[in-house]
Amino acid sequence: MNQQPSTRFHPLARLLHWLMAVLIMAMLFVGVSMVADLSPRRTLLIDLHKAIGLALLVLVLVRVATRLALGSPALPDDMPTAQRWAAKGSHWMLYGLMLAMPLIGWGMLSAGGYPIPLQLPALLPHDLRLYAVLRMLHGVLAYLLFATVLLHVAAALFHGLVRRDGVLRSMWPGR
Asked: Is pTM, for the whole model, over 0.85?
């Protein structure tokens, strides 16, 4: 029996997508808040940032495995080649940043000699110069992640409201 290719992502892929979307937005806002906040709650924000970062690291690994195992729906046949390349490139960028950000954060904590959640091992030796480089890189990549997320949302809205080609619907939760 021939089975039609799905026009929607697998429910697990959709769940991971939306859960990570919420956590990434929370992470970005917590990150900005903790840098700007000098009050006693800054420690709470830092601990929250670390916990969300660790959760996102686990989730992105599950998400990549899910994507490799379950695949994704095909893009619309009439989608221009440049848009196809942009879609694939932006997804690679998102996956790369979602993996790099928590790893760089973990490395930054290690190099700075800071406690790591769940008493995980240090990734790097204690080195304040390395810490400074990783902290700057973590900040720059956070802005890049935010910009990439904004482009991703804009593209999804373009597909949903202008092209109406099912791309947004393929990841939308529910039926």
From this structure: yes
Q: Is residue 145 part of a domain?
A: yes
Q: Is residue 115 part of a domain?
A: yes
Which pLDDT tens digits describe the chain residue by residue (175 residues)?
Answer: 444 467 899 999 999 999 999 999 999 999 999 988 888 899 999 999 999 999 999 999 999 999 999 999 999 999 999 999 999 999 999 999 999 999 999 999 999 999 999 999 999 999 999 999 999 999 999 999 999 999 999 999 999 999 999 999 999 998 7
Which residue type does 164 have?
R
- Structural domain boundaries, residue 130: 11-171
